[in-house]
What we know:
Elements: H1 6-45, H2 49-58, E1 89-90, E2 94-95, H3 98-106, H4 108-111, H5 124-134
Antiparallel strand pairs: 1-2
Amino acid sequence: MRRVPDSLWLVAVLAGFGAVGAIGSFVVQQRQEMSRQEKHAQALTGGVVERGERAIVARQCSACHEIPGIAASRGAVGPSLAGFAARKTVAGMLRNDPDALVRWIRYPQSVVPGNAMPNMGIGEKEARDIAAYLYTLSPRET
């Protein structure tokens, strides 16, 4: 069996460190971008993204919707919520702004009577948290 020259090992190790450094830099950049999105979404809605994520899981929204970032989210009754932040409307009727979204989350049957989304008894604060999470779903996740 041939022995690999020490200089080749050094090149391989340095190349590995370069790749790790590049990956690490990419991860940091992505985390900073998410942090900016989260801050913007929270300022926009008055909600907290992390609580919104927990509320989405607890309320089992993914039973009906596909929601990026939510594990096992494959619902097919309601629309996918991927790219939600870039949408022009909520429920195809309301302008996509935080107040309209909160209204939809809380009272979907009063907005569009008979639609498939039930009133879930969600309060104002929880709806704002859910809205904050939804406003982090940029078109890149689609």
